[in-house]
Design goal:
By secondary structure, the chain is α/β, with parallel strands linked by helices. The protein has 15 helices and 10 strands. The chain has a single domain (24-378), classed as TIM Barrel (Alpha-Beta Barrel), CATH 3.20.20.70. Strands 3-4-5-6-7-8-9-10 form an 8-stranded parallel barrel, surrounded by 4 helices. Helix 3 runs parallel beside helix 5 (176-189), helix 10 (291-302) runs antiparallel to helix 11 (306-313) and helix 12 packs antiparallel against helix 14. The longest helix is centred in the middle third of the chain and has 18 residues, at 140-157. It is globular and about 60 Å long.
Amino acid sequence: MTLSLRLPLDGKLETYHLIGEPVAHGTYQPARSRLAFAAAHVVADPLGDNSPGAPAVIDWDHTLEFRRHLWSLGLSVAEAMDTAQRGMGLDWPATQELIRRSAAEAPLRSSVVGSAGGAGEKQIAVGVGTDQLPAGVHPLDAVIAAYEEQLAVAEEVGAQPILMASRALCAAAGSPDDYRKVYDRLLSQSSRPVILHWLGSMFDPALEGYWGSDSLDTAADVVVELINENAAHVDGIKVSLLDASKEVALRNRLPEGVRLYTGDDFNYPSLIRGDGERYSDALLGIFAAIAPAAAAALKALDDRELTKYEEIFAPTVPLARQIFSAPTLYYKTGIAFLAWLNGHQPGFGMVGGLQTGRSLPHLAETFRLADAAGVLARPEFAVDRFRKLLVVGGVDA
């Protein structure tokens, strides 16, 4: 019998018949030809006060179980990134505990083609930022000290640092030289090569003009110069500009051995596949939502089954574009929504009350596209859960 429910689509209720075939959920080894990180979300404790502005209360069992799910699919975890609601509900005390708990469980990574890391490298990288500072403008030395405090936590747990784009640095910096001063200090202190992080203003408006310029081309010049001067300390740079041409142009300018980790949740299939000469590795929030499909596509790429690779990824792109549609910073709501539909958390709640970040019609379209992409692992279960949410929202599903 065909599963169906009534969805609020295009301003009216429509009966929707599910059409998707769930992607088979197997156990995978890490991809051999690419490094692939899924930026993971956190699960709010349904018994905690996770109202806006309150300290985050996390459901640790389900949060860590979700990371085990990602690791079982051969994906590495990008921990405590913007997907985990850094700066949008996840405070620094909860972030520290999240990093320590996740790093303690992270498995070791097998050798990867072209990777400097080997069997001793954990399958986790962690966000290092400045979000313990209150909002406002701070001296550059205070920004550096905040970064150093968080870098020390990453060093303590043996995780690869991701130097996150910083609202505080963006507010404090008066020129590209200020960015160079901060990053030169931090890169010289890290015991292992770090991943830099360029997050576009569509993900966080407070990062407008990062690297000291409103021009992406001028900013790219600053980034390339910084990396060339510190290449031994830089593993790669994660770029989230949602502009494939800008990413490819930057990728082509990076020195040998420095990776471009795509954070482009719109164009990831072509960027990861590459152009025959260069390719992007992956550090993506959408991989948390489409993890079984991402794992299967990466295996197909390893096996040089390029048609299969494209066929697996193609239906996930409309879903990704829906989840990351403007205002893009609320994409975290879609990630948590799909985790709830797939049984990875008991309720559709988020720290900071961010489950209200998307409307029911938006979530209905997300549901439809998730079905088409085959990423609803148990369709009957997902239908039952979403029907209850629709009823609570006043929709007779």
